[in-house]
Request: fold
Amino acid sequence: MADRRRINPPAGPTSAPNFALSPQTPSPSSPYRTRNPNEIRKICRTGLTPSASGSAYFELEPSQPPTRPDFFLNPTSSLKLTCTVHGPRPLPRSIPFSPHLLLAANVKFTPFASRHRRGYIRDVSERDLAVHVETALRGLLISERWPKSGIDVVITVLEGEDDGPQPTRQEQRQEEGGLSGWGMMSVLAGCITVASAAIADAGIDCVDLVSGGVAGIVRQPQPPGTFRSSDGAAAQIILDPCPSEHLEILAVCVVGYLKSRDEVTEIWTRGDIGNSPTGEDPNRLGFEVLVDRAVDAAASSRLVLEAALKEATEAKLNKSQLVVAPSGAKRKEIA
Reply:
């Protein structure tokens, strides 16, 4: 008697189906930058985690939509960060007395933050980002007002900006889990901005708002359908570079900038800045010019940061002006 509750496998061997694209289907074109060299991508919101003292959400939208609706991966990646601040709270008795506020930053990538799945244990890149974020935030806080206290800044990278489909960096992406050093620079700038927004949302005393900015020396590919010279595109300095949109990235600089005090709390450069393979003007593509452009990017990020904090503050003030009356009565405004 046959077993009706069991699904019998095929009698012979089988092979998995292979859904190949037809020759008439166009392949996805390589992404290119459609934004101006001075244009950045910023979205910021605060007050998303009620249980924390302060929280913020930061996002960089993809500069290009998917070229084909049936293609799963976007040609350009985006950046999505969340930050929560816990404290200030008293330190345990086992810790020696400290007249200043102790800051502890923690940066963690989610396993699905990149194209290649990451592990649950913190790696070296996450620890390096946490050290840079702590350095940028130490110049922001007024630590003398909170003796023997500490705050914890926890940043979670929901989606990290990677290098995209570039065959020349395939081995590098596999070694670093899909996020190379160029993508890490944009992640650091976003971490500095979102941490500053979360600290301001927590109401912790600060001297200013610190914003992160990134600028890079890149070779811009030409749009599809245009003539491409054999010697390649000329190098130029742009703000907020996306690694997948450029032919080659020569150098990148990240700064943490206090605009009202005109101070730089953090700076990190990577790449070859002094030498240029095509012989451009060194005065135009020098280190100081690159840092100045990164400061301009940080100043632009501050505008978005101020708008988000202003909107959150107005919402809190409007909410505080409404007092709930006893049951059965309507709400009234305080004069």
